[in-house]
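Posting this for the archive.
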Amino acid sequence: MSDCLHSLLWDGNALIIVDQTQLPEILTYRRCTSSRMVAEAIRELAVRGAPAIGVAAAYACVLALREARTEYQDWPQIRQAFHDSCQAIAEARPTAVNLAWAVRQMQKAFAESDSKTAAQKLLERAQAIEKEDIDTCRRIGENGASLFEGKNSLRILTHCNTGALATAGIGTAFGVLVTLASRGQLDRVFADETRPLLQGSRLTATELMEDQIPCCLITDSMASAVMRDKRIDAVIVGADRIAANGDTANKIGTYGLAVAAAYHHIPFYIAAPFSTFDFSIQSGKEIIIEERNPDEIRQIGGHYTAPKDVPVYNPAFDVTPASLIRGIITEKGVLTPPYEESILKYERSLTNE
């Protein structure tokens, strides 16, 4: 992946992000010098993808402490201002569990420091979260590719964007594709355009072309026909939140893909890091689904394609039940059903680390 398409960069004073709302027409950058600017970038999807959101949130917390120190002299006031900013960052997108996870990690680092060491501790933790994501993506790619050992000319269907633009590394589901391509096992990737904001056509297609991975862009409504007619070997997508029973929230349209894949007897995989698991919720019924601006449906590229006042339902995500998921590809390996057991075992292994 070209360096120009990496999702974000910390320059020591600000978080520089690729403004993904402008791709692929314009490659432009936002230089976020405040926690509020980072939170706004997350809210507007200028930076998106669960892992990248987590990394961005971590650096936003670094900025939050700097802002608090500028505004206040008294340490208790600084501490309160920092936690208030952390809360605002965490609320930028409620469904993406990596966001809240990263903020909690930063608050933990803050709690373990004092007025003299807090700034350095926070920066070190943010850098560690970024480094961990890079390594996690590599391992997810390898573990996912291992599912297809000995198989060639693979055709994989994917949805939304899970590559370098969505992470700090090579990607989650996209990382599996990159690894398979590097091993000469891929024939073609079919990428859904991903309405309404077209992350598949604007971002994933751009990354596939950049990496010279053979690909074919399709509309979301074509996916079932492609499964029937184009010999699809697997569907691999990312996740924004995974419940303790394996129910998974991901970009709207994922659930429909899982249903279609089950009908066509095509294995459906989730690829996500452990930070995407929310062990505090038992099923997908507890996942809060973000509803976004109706104009995202009424418009394309700023031009109305529907009546300006037509009622709209615009959930950003849907929940795929665990029963439709063949496996969850993680940095620790591939979890398989029954998920109540495999995820619990996974959670315990994390606790013991």
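The longest helix spans residues 118-146. The chain has two domains: 3-135, 140-351.
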